[in-house]
Specification:
mainly alpha; transmembrane; membrane
């Protein structure tokens, strides 16, 4: 049986995606300004995390192609 290994970078990407989706839903359905501000700041952190994890995923892909 073949088991593929998920990299930690991919897990971080999935985690930041879940955080971004939950922050968007919190901002859409919240009724207080505190929750809105918290959701907007969490969106900024999640977007930065997504950018960095995408960059590391691309770096891993380039290294996998260049170093067989």
């Amino acid at each position: 049986m073949s088991m593929s290994k998920i990299s930690t970078t991919m897990l971080a990407f999935i985690g930041f995606t879940v955080v971004l989706i939950s922050a968007i839903s919190t901002a859409a359905f919240s009724e207080s300004s505190f929750h809105d501000n918290f959701a907007f700041s969490l969106m900024a952190v999640a977007c930065l995390g997504l950018i960095f994890s995408i960059a590391f995923l691309m770096l891993e892909a380039v290294l996998a192609v260049c170093n067989p």
